[in-house]
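Could you please consider the sequence and fold appended to this message?
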Amino acid sequence: MNTPASATVSATQNLPAPTRERPPADVVGPWAWARNNLFATWWSTAITLVLIYAILRASLGFVEWAVVNAIWTVPQGASGPDTSSCRAIKGIGACWAVIGEKYRFILFGRFPFDEQWRPAICVALFIGLYIVSAMRRFWRKELVLIWVVVLAAIGVLMWGGVFGMPYVGQDVWGGLPITLILSTFGLAFAFPIAVLVALGRRSTKLPAVKLLCVLYVELIRGVPLISLLFMASVMFPLFMPDGVNFDKLLRAQVAFILFAAAYLAEVVRAGLQALPKGQMEAGDALGLSYWQKTGMIILPQALRLVIPPLVNTFIAFFKDTSLVLIIGIFDVLTTGKIAVSEPTWQGFSTEVYLFLAVIYFAFCFAMSRYSSGLEREFSRSRGR
């Protein structure tokens, strides 16, 4: 006699779920990974042990220098800070007192001491703007308005002259705000220019535009950034009419934008060339215009493909802002150098450069981690 199908299904549902056994520890997990990657052979084990010893030795030495034997404050004498205790342990312990004494000059340069709350707020606004821009839920048209409002507020705070704030000229700006201004404005304006140049360089119907884009990219990439900054600071004013002169910071910003746009254009062009021709043909089949196809189909896919080189370029140009020293603009690296040029603090540049390295690393590492998150998110969306 045959069993009804419903009874068979019910009996199957009542069966206990099979238990899943965890794989053994020697197959998966940290111990298995270490055995397969660090201790697979005798020479791999030897190299691993040597590296572990070297890392532990260096780490313990650094902790002893930076924490155990370090001096955090120095007494104030009649003629200024008394650094005799720091000089007595030089080479044995760090003198972090130089950071406590000079951090405001390193971060804000020659900005008036009583008004340094203004550039401090500007730094916070920049960081907040980066965080908001990184959240995908804010990727709407309103984000442009947020950028305009925040950048306008930063300009008001830095210049002053309104709301009871005294005017502060750009000649005394310096430190971290200068680094953030040059990198943020530079990359924000360079990126759309780079997209247009990349599209123009791949154009087949506008040979004159293509030629101009090729000449621009090859010319800018063929010279160092220092030469562009020198031209903008020294040579450009010579060609201007009498009485017409642009601010030095503005000229440096324009040079930085043009230089960054040329490099970013090649990164974007690589993403455009990686897309199959069928993507454009699909847009043609839908009856879309060139700009509709480019904005809705081509660019979103191309930019996803080149996230790593784009972020790498962003990081490189964030650090290249230190080159503005040659035209007399004091970024955060330059103010750090000046801070240890005083006779009182000469010889303690290591502590200052470590402090600056932490600042640069924090911004660059944040960009790197964010790009990694974007890559994973876009990879999951493509997998679905």
About this structure: The beta strands are 76-77, 80-81, 174-175, 330-331. The chain has a mean pLDDT of 84. The CA atoms of residues 156 and 163 lie 9 Å apart. The domain at 76-111+168-378 is CATH 1.10.3720.10 (MetI-like fold).
